[in-house]
Every structure is written in C-alpha cells, then in structure tokens.
Design goal:
The protein is an alpha/beta fold and about 375 residues long. About 50% of the residues lie in helices and about 15% in strands. A 6-stranded mixed beta sheet has the order 10-7-1-4-5-11. A 3-stranded antiparallel beta sheet has the order 3-2-6. A hairpin with a 6-residue loop joins strand 2 and strand 3. Helix 15 packs parallel to helix 17. The longest helix has 21 residues. It starts with a helix and ends with a helix. About 30% of the residues are buried. The model has no long low-confidence stretch (mean pLDDT about 90). InterPro entries: DUF3800. It comes from Anaerobutyricum soehngenii. It holds the Pfam family DUF3800. This is DUF3800 domain-containing protein.
Length: about 375
C-alpha cells in the first residue's frame, strides 16, 4: 500500500513539474513517431584496423525521435500528398532518404519538395515534435552529477544546466583524448581504486587555470575534489565501456507524459521485443496508449520519417559548426533554402507555443543557442527577400 502511495505521489510531483515548465500533459492528441541516427547503443571500443580507441559512432550524430502531432485523427490521402510533393507515380511510400535527403542539412533545404511538405503540415493544422539526444553530452554529464549536487551549484551562485554546458564545451573538440581515457578506465564503470587516476587524466584536458572562466574554475575545483573520493555514484555498477545501452527510455517518454494521448510508432523490432511478454509500465501504471504500425499503412508515420530525418541532419550540422561558420553559410544560401529553413523555424515556434513539451533537447545549452542563431539569421534574410 505504501509503495502504491509513493508511486502516486511521484506521478503527481512529475505532473506538477511539467505544468511549471509549460507542458500541457492532459491533451488528447495523436502523436506520430519515427527515428533518425539510431545507433542502438553508444560505447567506446578498439578499432580493429589501427587499434585506436574510438566511439562506435560519431558522437555528434544525435539520436532523434520525432514526428507530427494531430489534435484529432486525420484521414490523410497518400495520393493527394504524393501529387503535392510531385512524386513519381510508382512511389508507394514517402521516405526521407529516397525523396528528401540531399547531402547535408543545407543540401536538404535546397529541395522545393521540403517546402511543399512544411506548408502541407501547417495547412493541416499539425504540429511537429522531437526529442534529440547528443550522445557525448548525455554520457559525460554523468560526471558532473557524480561529483557535485545541484544544491552545491546553486549555493555557489551558478546555474545547474549552465555548468553542464560549460563542462561539455571544455571537452568539445577533445574527443580523441577523451576516448582514450574512457577506454582506459572502462567508463562508465570506474572502479574505486581507479577514480583518482581517471580524475587526474580528465583534468589534463582542461584549459590552464589562468585561461579559465569563473565557471570553468568552479568545475575544475569540484572535479579536483573528487580525486580524493572513493565514490562516483553514477559511474559505478554499469557495463564497461557502454555509455548508452539503448534509447528505449525515450520511446516511453511521450506515452507516460501525455497519458490521454495516443502514440503511434513505426515498427521498431528491438523496442517491441522488450514488450513481448508484458505491457510496459511506468510508476506502477501500464502504458496502454502506444502502438506500432507499418509505416506503409500510415501517411503520418511517413511524414514523421521526414521530420526525424531533417532534424537529424540539422543536429549533425549544428554540432559541427560555430556561429561564424553558420553566419557565412547563411550568407550564401539561395532563396529556396532560406524559405525552407524559415518555414521549419515557424513550425517549431508554432509547436512550442502550443505545448512546450513538444520540443525536447538533451544537449548543451550552447547547442540550442546555435539552432536559434541559425533560425534567427534565416528569419532576417527571409524578411529581406520578401
């Protein structure tokens, strides 16, 4: 009885937190999902050809689970949408990689078909939604959570998420050295007798203290303190070398958050395999509001595949560019690219205004700032072109 009471209170606290963030969790919408850049698992390994240590995938190719949201079920005609997108008559399914992908993100934005789809999404009253996960950020912030408490950060006058952002930026661009350290210490399963060595080598990746900002000095001091510790709570008891066992948790985030909504996914065999013997649960309640369908039979799943693909390309672009490079790129974009990026910005803002919970970013604040920087620049250029 106490267990049930605790679970009920945890659900209430969670819903209260969502409400404070501007999430409308009681909506009765239909969410459609597909994924992009799904590496299934993220780990550090030895390259069998050159014996160097490496991540199994590019750590800046964000996992993306995204799609569209309809306020109510829609009867969508594939033939109508196919004509609008000017697809060949023998095409039976809309797929990002077949009809929309063209090199990198900016290349995709050069296709007029992208704009046709964005306009259609808007005219149908649909919203977009996404969750994207920066693999490197998601892995290394466990270090911060293991060496300092949010209360300590607050007491020293710093912001919890800003500290994580600064820590990420301190290690950004040092992937080769970081991979070697992670492999050497079997990250994220650091043994107690190796904590001091791990911390010592990590500190060597930081800028010289005289070159550090105030936040960087705080982080350096807190990490140095951990050198004497015999515990890194979130970096123990895990599988050696494996930083992300799977992305399953993100598939259940929508159904548990929006409990009155229906959540429709493209067939995902690995996730479904874990559900074969039982209905997934969260805090003692079954998640009966999710289903998997063959994308060939559902146009909105196909549209979600395009949204996931585009957002995946966008995050690869953003993760590998600084503001100066973005500014130069925008100056050289053609009219179609500007219009398409501006329309994507509009759909994002429209969705955010309807429900802030539709747009979820597990990444550094600086990355989100660069997304906004790109959209702001393109908005200005679009206004000049109009």
């Amino acid at each position: 009885m106490n267990c049930q009471s605790d679970e009920k209170r945890m659900r209430e606290v969670e819903q209260e937190w969502y409400a404070m963030q501007g999430f409308k969790t009681d909506i009765k919408c239909h969410f459609y999902y597909d994924e992009s850049n799904n590496c299934r698992k993220f780990w550090v390994r030895t390259n069998q050809k050159n014996l160097e240590k490496e991540f199994n995938v590019n750590p800046y190719e964000d996992f993306v689970l995204a799609g569209v949201v309809a306020k109510q079920e829609l009867d969508v005609s594939f033939e109508e949408l196919a004509r609008l997108l000017k697809l060949q008559k023998n095409v039976t399914e809309i797929k990002f990689k077949n009809q929309f992908s063209k090199g990198d993100f900016l290349g995709c934005m050069s296709r007029k078909r992208v704009g046709y789809l964005f306009q259609w999404i808007n005219e149908k009253g649909l919203f977009i939604h996404y969750t994207h996960v920066n693999n490197l950020y998601y892995a290394i912030v466990e270090i911060i959570d293991s060496i300092m408490l949010p209360e300590e950060i607050d007491e020293m006058g710093f912001n919890y998420f800003s500290i994580k952002n600064t820590f990420y930026e301190m290690l950004h661009g040092k992937e080769k050295e970081l991979q070697n350290i992670m492999f050497r210490y079997e990250f994220p399963n650091i043994k107690k007798d190796k904590i001091s060595g791990f911390i010592s080598e990590l500190l060597q990746l930081f800028p010289l203290r005289c070159e550090q900002t105030l936040e960087e000095k705080f982080i350096t001091g807190m990490i140095k303190r951990a050198e004497q510790s015999d515990e890194l709570v979130f970096l123990e008891g895990n599988t050696d070398y494996v930083m992300q066992e799977s992305f399953e948790i993100f598939y259940y985030d929508g159904p548990r958050k929006y409990f009155n909504a229906m959540h429709i996914y493209d067939i995902e065999t690995e996730i479904q395999a874990t559900e074969k013997d039982s209905v997934p649960t969260y805090l003692g309640e079954q998640l009966n509001n999710m289903e998997y369908v063959d994308s060939k039979s559902n146009v909105l799943i196909q549209v979600s595949d395009v949204i996931a693909g585009i957002w995946g390309k966008l995050m690869i672009y953003i993760n590998n560019k600084d503001n100066n490079a973005i500014r130069k790129d925008v100056e050289n974009l053609n009219k179609t690219q500007i219009e398409n990026i501006n329309m994507l910005r509009y759909l994002r803002e429209k969705s955010d205004m309807y429900n802030k919970g539709f747009l979820m970013s597990v990444t550094a604040l600086s990355v989100i700032d660069r997304i906004n920087f790109l959209f702001d620049l393109c908005k200005v250029r679009a206004e000049k072109l109009s």
